[in-house]
Amino acid sequence: MLKAMVIDDSRAMRMILARTLAELGYEVFQAANGKEAIETLEGAAEGVSLILVDWNMPEMNGLSFVRKLRADQRFHGVKLMMVTTETQVEQMMTALEAGANEYVMKPFTREIIEDKLRLLGVLQ
Amino acid sequence: MAVLTGNASSGKTDLQPENYRFLQDCVYKESGIVIDSDKHYLLEARLMPVVKKQQLTSLNDLCNLLRATRTPDLRRQVVEAMTTHETLFFRDPAQYDALRTVLLPQLIEQRRALRSLSFWSAASSSGQEAYSLAMLLREMGLGDWSIRIVGTDLSEQILDRARAGKFLQIEVNRGLPVSYLVKYFNRQGLDWQLKEEVRRMVTFQKLDLRDNLRQLGAFDVVFCRNVLIYFDQQTKKRILEQLRGALAPGGHLLLGGAETGVSAVDWFERVSIGQAVLYRAR
Asked: Are B69 and B111 found together in one domain?
């Protein structure tokens, strides 16, 4: 089974995204911030191929997480999608430069998530 | 245009049977769209805003008004309300992959001297399909070619939206790669405005697919996605024949995913490219 991770400090948001990904066939891991996510990726979540990550979180925000992950060769092939309330073009460009593959603005629908996953080539 | 989507349940309304048939007939005559007999919910959902706009109280009243006045504007409002406009950027990525990897490289090679290509989005709705194509062509380095992209639809209202090139956040969130969003759009408040360099590649005009389509000229690729399934068999056949006539020799027709079984064999050759199915003019 393919593995995915949802990183968001909102428990409700994690639950919504995790349920969507689970229905699409993923085993889903969750983390409340970037630091927790890195720790989880080093352990139980080894082999994760898709990560949906919020921007604004305590401890380590989404942008820092993306930069840290992209600096680590082990996670080179992981597809990273930011899912955030940040909607400025400059922020999107920053996220792309940091290594994010896609970007979803909140609020979103299930169709929006699915369409973006198709763009990433991880959903038929 | 011309797309009755949604789960049209057979929910009970107080619409009298003769009025249901009247609305079916009215929409068919004006647009060629067939409304099945179990779409009560859909009629109510789409037409109640028209009822309210006319300061009426029910669909039965609306039918009475339509019968009594024969006002073209009211009929137009009914038809436009019954034709949904759901569309999104890069709908069906497999078709755009086929364009990017096979069709467009072939066309570029063939037209290297002329540097001219033409495309038609035959049910353009609010323009996402035509603009997706325009952005793709720019990405492929064809921004300085003579590119003609025509978008047509039955609804003037939706064409005005398409021409404006302004989209809601929820629309640009769907199907559009973020790399294209940052490159080709400017944020305007809560909306997203397509840049002029893309908008100027596309022209929009009102067109009923049942009319003579030869007036538009010849196209290398025609998109006619998720439209034909809403016409009866005879109308569908006539439109397909006309679409064939609107294609340049060897041109391609792109239909919707649910339409791959369309019997287009007389005028088209079915071609598979990756996950996409296309129809090449014979």
From this structure: no
Question: Which residues from chain A sit within 8 angstroms of residue B182, using beta carbons?
Answer: 89, 92-93, 96
Mean pLDDT in residue range B34-40: 81
8 Å CB contact of B179 and A96: yes
Asked if B178 lies within 8 A of A92 by C-beta distance, the reply is yes
CA atoms within 13 A on the CB side of B80: 18
* ipTM score: 0.91
Q: Is residue B32 part of a domain?
A: yes
Separation of alpha carbons B192 and B128, rounded Å: 13
For residues A51, A54, A55, A61, the Cα torsion angle rounded to the nearest 10 degrees is -70
Domain around B54: 17-82
Contacts of B88 in chain A (CB under 8 A): 115
Residue B153 lies in a domain: yes
User: Are A27 and A4 spatial neighbours (Cβ–Cβ below 8 Å)?
Assistant: yes
Using one digit for the tens of pLDDT, what is the confidence trace for B112-143? 999 999 999 998 989 999 999 999 999 999 98
Calpha distance B222→B282 (Å, rounded): 14
Q: Which H/E stretch holds residue B55?
A: none
Q: At what angle do helices B40-53 and B72-82 cross, to 10 degrees?
A: 140
Which of the residues in chain A have pLDDT under 70? 45
Owning domain of residue A66: 3-119
The shortest C-alpha distance from B149 to chain A (Å) reads 24
Look up tokens 């409700």; give the residue: A12
Cα–Cα distance, A111 to A115 (Å, whole number):
6
B173–A105 C-beta distance less than 8 A: yes
My answer on whether B56 and B140 are in the same domain is no
Distance from CA of A81 to the nearest CA of B (A): 10
Domain count, chain B: 2
Q: Which of B90, B182, B194 to mutate to test the interface with A (most CBs of A within 10 A)?
A: B182
CATH number at residue B148: 3.40.50.150
The answer to the question of residue A124 being in a domain is no
What CATH code is carried by the domain that includes residue A87? 3.40.50.2300
